[in-house]
Amino acid sequence: VNHFFFLGCCRGDEMTDDHQIWNMINSVKHFSITPTIVELTCMDKDNMNTLVSNILCLSPRLTQSLSDILYHKTKGNPLFFCQLMISLNREGLLSVSLSRRRWERDEE
After folding, report:
1. pLDDT tens digit string along 40-60?
2. How far apart (Å, rounded) are the C-alpha atoms in residues 93 and 22?
3. Which of 52, 54, 60, 63 is the most exposed place for a label (fewest CB within 10 A)?
4. Predicted TM-score (pTM) of this structure
5. DSSP characters over 16-84
């Protein structure tokens, strides 16, 4: 195997030196594999609104209310944000408008 991809998610403040993820990371090092660890921090309200604005192709002024709701529900956690956006799309609360070339949201 030349490449292996593993995505793990955990709360950094709950990680101890003997946590199972660290054990797994240390065990793959025995196979001459150098893991890359990427730590994501939570977004603030402004960064979340910028991201929502870019995703929906709308101005930040128009996405602020939705961003406020998303931030309240996710506390800025990038994984929770992604999962919530996927869920909103699956439930039909966010949908693509090909004629308007942007995403639209159900206001309800």
Report:
1. 889 999 999 999 999 888 889
2. 38
3. 54
4. 0.66
5. -TT-HHHHHHHHHHTTT------PPPPP-HHHHHHHHHHHHTS-HHHHHHHHHHHHHHHTT-HHHHHHH
